[in-house]
Structure to design on (615 residues):
């Protein structure tokens, strides 16, 4: 069998069509829904980062909130306290994610299975407690608000105001499109194939001479960077940086989104985030008990719908779906 | 008051924490040891125990001891029943696969928490202690109830250990823990044992909660912190080792009591969590555990 490393034309077309549809949505959606979808796009980037370790790498981490928060604080604190502009602050956020991914990965990957989940959960908890401990700088739960004037992006000589709804939507979409195509190419590359093979049988890959630890570390570091990019984008687009976004709940949400959309599918994270947002949105207009909905959906998913929406579609009808 | 009395007070408070923690961690460790299930909803069983204790004790007027005894009898029973049903409805259908059960117990956590918020509310509510004696020490008077909690916890831990080591039920549980397939082949109803162990683990958390409600009030978010602490205890003690769990609970309880009295509680929690994560990284079997099979 010939091994094809580049994405197939049809899957590439599908991804470009999704991006084009989201672009058109900027002018078609009513104001409220455009706001919701811009938030969903940023959080979908977070979910895509999570999907790289959980879906493709097969590593169930319960600590990804720390990577998201690393980007959030990396960008937010440098803007707030050091008056950095958006670009270097965004870079600082990603850099923080890279560093944290390397350090946490090198430590946590010494364990596996249940121990890995607990270790990542604990590192994330330490990060959360750290944001609370340095309340003088982070203002803890209450958080920092980034004012409109510091959230302007300079690109090709022009200045964009990221608090403007349309600009914000387009900026979120640009980041989303970039990460989506990046993921598509990574999982189709030789490295991506090795990562998936390690998920299926790490013993065999070890015997074949692959460095399992190094491959997983790369996955976790890439994932940390993507999640941090989402966090940094959240800080500059929505202007809020607070420790609630570092709490355990924000480690569990991407797991939920990825499971719902379909783990190890490139578009699953977007679909899962979008559906879950609207489920909660609709549920909140009927009841205040949205945690109940989240809990029931989680249990329902693991009981009856392990592959998620796109995973099921791929298994039944469209085997070429990446 | 000099340094000595402060240290004594911190030690006593630490022992109370250790007493409650060892009961709760014992339940978590039992469930993990026998079923290999990491029960993230364990903290919510603890919270349910406390909330139900408030409910049952509020049913009885007059002597607070009566209400407390009613709560002590009924609250763990109801929580055990809820755990048994969730095992039957959810965990057993997942065939106790580790990752799936983690996700499912996270779902359970959210459901229980939301139901408690909806039906019980966001207030903290107290339960009156069954008695209010004070033991007069040379420097200060100390609550007799707190000392009774320590005593009750020692008794219950000893009973659980006896149950595990000496009784037929314990033998069946240990056989299931050691090799569930062979146990099944010898006619042990493994699925029923699993349900019973899950219920027993939840009941231990609920008893710990009933004991603690007269000291700290019942609140719908009270399960989160003890959950993390019990995780720490179970890991340090060695996953599935009962003796290690108790030793670690005393260690953590005492250091928590003493460090929080002299330093910032957030810093203490931060360092403890980091330390435990590193213990797990470099010594996955825990301090007292044997290597995992």
């Amino acid at each position: 069998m010939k091994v094809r490393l580049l994405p197939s034309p049809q899957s590439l077309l599908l991804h470009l069509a999704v991006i084009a549809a989201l672009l058109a949505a900027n002018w078609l959606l009513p104001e409220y829904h455009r706001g919701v979808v811009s938030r969903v796009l940023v959080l979908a980037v977070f979910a895509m980062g999570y999907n790289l370790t959980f879906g493709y790498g097969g590593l169930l981490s319960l600590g990804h909130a720390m990577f998201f928060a690393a980007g959030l604080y990396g960008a937010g604190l440098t803007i707030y306290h050091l008056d950095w502009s958006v670009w270097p602050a965004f870079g600082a956020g990603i850099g923080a994610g890279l560093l944290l991914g390397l350090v946490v990965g090198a430590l946590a990957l010494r364990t596996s299975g249940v121990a890995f989940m607990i270790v990542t959960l604990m590192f994330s908890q330490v990060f959360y407690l750290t944001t609370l401990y340095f309340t003088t700088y982070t203002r803890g739960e209450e958080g920092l608000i980034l004012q409109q004037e510091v959230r302007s992006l300079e690109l090709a000589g022009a200045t964009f105001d990221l608090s403007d709804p349309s600009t914000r939507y387009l900026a979120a979409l640009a980041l989303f499109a970039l990460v989506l195509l990046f993921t598509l190419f990574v999982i189709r590359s030789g490295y991506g194939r090795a990562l998936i093979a390690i998920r299926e049988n790490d013993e065999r890959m070890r015997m074949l001479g692959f460095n399992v630890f190094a491959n997983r570390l790369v996955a976790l570091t890439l994932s940390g960077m993507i999640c941090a990019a989402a966090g940094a984008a959240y800080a500059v687009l929505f202007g809020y940086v607070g420790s609630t976004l570092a709490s355990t709940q924000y480690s569990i949400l991407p797991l939920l989104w990825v499971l719902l959309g379909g783990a190890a599918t490139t578009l699953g994270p977007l679909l899962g985030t979008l559906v879950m947002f609207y489920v909660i949105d609709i549920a909140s207009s009927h009841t205040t008990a949205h945690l109940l909905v989240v809990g029931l959906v989680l249990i329902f998913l693991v009981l009856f719908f392990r592959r998620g929406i796109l995973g099921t579609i791929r298994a039944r009808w469209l085997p070429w779906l990446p | 008051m000099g340094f000595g009395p402060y240290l004594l007070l911190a030690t006593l408070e630490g022992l109370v924490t250790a007493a409650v923690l060892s009961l709760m961690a014992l339940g978590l460790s039992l469930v993990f040891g026998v079923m290999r299930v990491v029960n993230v909803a364990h903290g919510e069983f603890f919270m349910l125990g406390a909330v139900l204790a408030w409910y049952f004790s509020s049913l009885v007027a007059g002597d607070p001891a009566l209400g407390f005894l009613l709560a002590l009898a009924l609250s763990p029973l109801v929580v055990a029943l809820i755990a048994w049903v969730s095992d039957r409805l959810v965990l057993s259908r997942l065939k106790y696969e580790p990752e799936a059960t983690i996700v499912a117990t996270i779902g359970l956590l959210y459901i229980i928490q939301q139901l408690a918020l909806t039906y019980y509310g966001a207030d903290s509510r107290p339960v009156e202690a069954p008695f209010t004696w004070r033991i007069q020490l040379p420097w200060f008077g100390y609550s007799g109830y707190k000392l009774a909690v320590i005593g009750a916890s020692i008794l219950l831990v000893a009973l659980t250990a006896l149950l595990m080591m000496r009784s037929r039920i314990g033998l069946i549980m240990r056989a299931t823990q050691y090799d569930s397939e062979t146990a099944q082949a010898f006619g042990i109803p493994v699925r029923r044992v699993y349900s019973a162990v899950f219920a027993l683990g939840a009941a231990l958390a609920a008893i710990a909660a009933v004991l603690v409600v007269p000291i700290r009030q019942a609140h719908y978010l009270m399960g989160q912190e003890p959950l993390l602490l019990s995780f720490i205890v179970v890991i340090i003690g060695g996953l599935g080792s009962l003796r290690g769990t108790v030793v670690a609970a005393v260690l953590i309880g005492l250091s928590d009591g003493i460090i929080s009295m002299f330093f910032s509680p957030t810093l203490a929690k931060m360092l403890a969590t980091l330390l435990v994560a590193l213990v797990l990284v470099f010594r996955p079997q825990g301090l007292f555990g044997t290597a995992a099979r």
